[in-house]
Design brief:
This protein is an alpha/beta fold. It has a domain of 146 residues: Enolase-like, domain 1 (2-Layer Sandwich). 31% of the residues lie in helices and 20% in strands. The chain is built from nine helices and eleven strands. Strands 6-7-5-4-8-9-10-11 form an eight-stranded mixed β-sheet, with helices on one face. A three-stranded antiparallel β-sheet has the order 1-2-3. Helix 1 packs across helix 4 and helix 4 crosses helix 9.
């Protein structure tokens, strides 16, 4: 299964949900500011359906994604069939893929509600990884607070980054452009933005020796079946619990805070798309 196959699978799952329960239409969108703010750790955009189900995308990828607010206008999304946006995930540009994946995540949230499935809450920001001295933790993407937390616990950390100016080395910490620094890692935390910038497939071979691989970030709200099939052990994302508040906070450049809930879905305990669809159909 290539990345294009993975993207196609996610779009097909969204289309299947919409065929059974749709059409589903978008009610609102906030397109995150693309210019990083040194005072903040991250910025997100959000798409919300008419029933309040919502999906997020990370807004600071840079490159072509930075043009997103100029090329798309939030007001134009109201009333649009969500599948018209979800299909943008098949596009070749980061901006389109960002909107497409957020739309798929919104459909996923709607689907979970239909099926009566509530993703378990995450016990912490480390996606449930219990690491300490002697462990060798890898990051795909520089999660600064998590790196800081891990190092404070005596964990040896290696980070793969795409930005050359972040390259750095000191005892207990390596930040590199070379994914081979992951080869001796016992645990790996991968950013969900790899599903936006099309680097997920390329990273997987470098994670094969890890005992546990988790996909993390507010972007990770989509159907997890396809990434579980690729060897991911768990997905840790953000479920929006107060859509109006989340929209307002993203629009204000504030953190989502208690308008969202951290979730952690383990591969071994996830019911699976087909089972959830049966439940959703049975519930009517």
């Amino acid at each position: 299964m290539s990345v294009s196959d993975l993207r196609r699978t996610l779009v097909e799952q969204a289309a299947r949900v919409c065929a059974e329960f749709g059409p589903l239409r978008l009610a609102a969108a906030v397109l995150g500011a693309p210019i990083p703010d040194p005072a903040r750790e991250a910025e997100f955009g959000i798409l919300a359906l008419e029933d309040g189900a919502a999906g997020l995308y990370y807004a600071w990828l840079g490159g072509a994604q930075a043009e997103l607010p100029q090329r798309f206008h939030a007001a134009d999304f109201a009333g649009v069939d969500v599948m018209d946006v979800a299909r943008l995930y098949l596009a070749g540009a980061d901006a389109e893929r960002s909107l497409g994946l957020a739309a798929i995540s919104a459909v996923t949230a709607h689907f979970y509600r239909r099926a009566g499935y509530r993703p378990p809450s995450a016990p912490d920001s480390m996606a449930g990884l219990d690491v300490g001295p002697g462990d060798r933790l890898g990051f795909i993407g520089n999660f600064v607070p998590l790196v800081r937390y891990a190092r404070a616990r005596g964990v040896d950390v290696a980070v793969v980054e795409r930005k050359a100016h972040m390259v750095h080395a000191e005892p207990g910490l390596v930040i590199s452009l070379d994914p081979r620094v992951l080869h001796d890692r016992s645990h790996i935390i991968c950013t969900g933005t790899t599903l936006l910038n099309d680097s997920f497939e390329a990273m997987l071979p470098h994670c094969s020796h890890a005992r546990r691989l988790v996909l993390v970030g507010p972007t990770v709200g989509f159907f997890p079946d396809a990434v579980f099939a690729r060897g991911v052990d768990a997905v840790a994302g953000t479920a929006i619990v107060d859509t109006a508040q989340a929209l307002a906070r993203v629009a204000a450049g504030a953190a989502i805070g208690d308008a969202g809930r951290r979730t952690l879905i383990a591969r071994d305990h996830y019911p699976g798309f087909d089972t959830l669809l049966e439940r959703a159909l049975a519930r009517g």
